[in-house]
Structures are given as C-alpha cells and as structure tokens.
C-alpha cells in the first residue's frame, strides 16, 4: 500500500501552552483531510506531551525536532528517542540545517540519531539540502548525494524514513526554488533512496505557493516552518496537499 502524503509542521523554538489551541485547529483540518494526508506537528520538546494529550483521538501525529544518539546517560539538556516516544511522539526530525548550523552536527552524528530513532520505532524525517554557495557553485546534486550517503544508514524503508529536501537558502527567507529546481533535486533524491520513501519539500512553503509545489513530480508533501504555527495558515496547506 502506498503511504499517504505527509505535511509536517516544524514549530522550531516557538509555541507555549497557550498555542495548543492552534494545534487543535490544525487537528480539525487534519480530520477533514481524512486518510489521504498524514498531518504531523513537531512542537518544542516542552510541548510534546501536552500536545499529544490534547490531540488524543485525532488523526494528527506528534513528533520531536531532534533526539540524542544515545537512549540515556550523562548528556545534559538532551532528549532521547525513547523519551520522545514516552511523550507521545511517532516521528522525529533529524539533521535539520539549524541543528547542523547551531550544534555542528555532521552526517555521522545524524546517521547515529537515525539509528536511535529507528530502534525506538520512530519515523525519522531526515533533512538534507544545499547552501546558497553550494547551489551557486553548481554542486547541489553532489551535496545531496553526499548527505544521503553519509547520514542515511542501511535499513531505510517507507515505514521508518521520510526525506525532507530543504535548501538552506530557502528556509525562513520567503525565497523558494523554481519548480524545475525542485523537480531536479527530488528526482536525484528519489534515485538514491529505497522505493516508496516519501520526499517532502521544505523552505518558505506558504498557502500561496503550496499547490504549485505539491504538483511537482516526486513531491509527496512538505515540511513547513513558519506557516505551520497558525491553523489559519496551515489549514490551506493541508487542503492543497489533499487536492494535489
Ligand atoms: O523545518 C522547516 C523548514 O526549516 C522550513 O521553515 P520555513 O517554512 O519557515 O521556511
């Protein structure tokens, strides 16, 4: 069976208890979208358990934004995959460019985190993408291939892995690649991963550009940042994916 399309909201370091109301609004849109679209919200770690609790009985998934490669130990401030599961998570974003930038995560670190996530039954959403300098240098496809080879361990399946293509220069900038550029990148990624793995596009997805992005070959959904924080913005993106 082909997996449903997936739209994931990465709240990054945004969201407090008061914002659970937005999650409930998003769950309403998810319910209306039915089985054709999986909807996932990845709030900050502090909000995971309360959000999972608030969304009990809905068809909206909840996920983490990162996990440690170890399941416990002397790692102050870190959260393990097992702890994410305890909090109600089913997915975890790994290798986001903001983690690579802020925490100096390399592909080997990320591969270990993917293994940790799999070992706890979490779906790993592995983020890859080129910087603007790499695109300007004409090395986008090489960078994507290298990141995939080094950060995606053997054993990836459509059940345990999602790949998110996020050009670093498109994140939070309001700039998006052309349809031709997304098509080229996603075709290259598709050729590198086991069949059936869902490929998300991420970077400045909005209600205005979502339909065109979702109509692109090999785009199975989106990883959305800013436009996932409010139900009024995320709902039309969910609807666009359902109608794609
Ligand atoms: O994880 C989400 C991406 O970094 C995209 O963020 P954005 O939609 O705010 O550009």
From TrEMBL:
Its EC number is 5.3.1.1. One of its GO terms (molecular function) is triose-phosphate isomerase activity. One of its GO terms (cellular component) is cytosol. Pfam families: TIM. GO terms for biological process: gluconeogenesis; glyceraldehyde-3-phosphate biosynthetic process; glycerol catabolic process; glycolytic process. It catalyses: D-glyceraldehyde 3-phosphate = dihydroxyacetone phosphate; L-erythrulose 1-phosphate = D-erythrulose 4-phosphate. It is found in: Cytoplasm. Signal peptide: none annotated. The active site is at residues 96, 166. Pathway: Carbohydrate biosynthesis; gluconeogenesis; Carbohydrate metabolism; erythritol degradation; Carbohydrate degradation; glycolysis; D-glyceraldehyde 3-phosphate from glycerone phosphate: step 1/1. It comes from the Bacteria. Its main location: cytoplasm. Transmembrane segments: none annotated. Keywords: Cytoplasm, Gluconeogenesis, Glycolysis, Isomerase. It is an enzyme of class 5 (isomerase). InterPro entries: Aldolase_TIM (IPR013785), TIM_sf (IPR035990), TrioseP_Isoase_bac/euk (IPR022896), Triosephosphate_isomerase (IPR000652), Triosephosphate_isomerase_AS (IPR020861). The keyword Membrane does not apply. Substrate binds at residues 10-12, 172, 204, 225-226. HAMAP family: TIM_B (MF_00147_B). Belongs to the triosephosphate isomerase family. Homodimer. Involved in the gluconeogenesis. Catalyzes stereospecifically the conversion of dihydroxyacetone phosphate (DHAP) to D-glyceraldehyde-3-phosphate (G3P). This is Triosephosphate isomerase. It comes from Pararhodobacter oceanensis. The gene is tpiA.
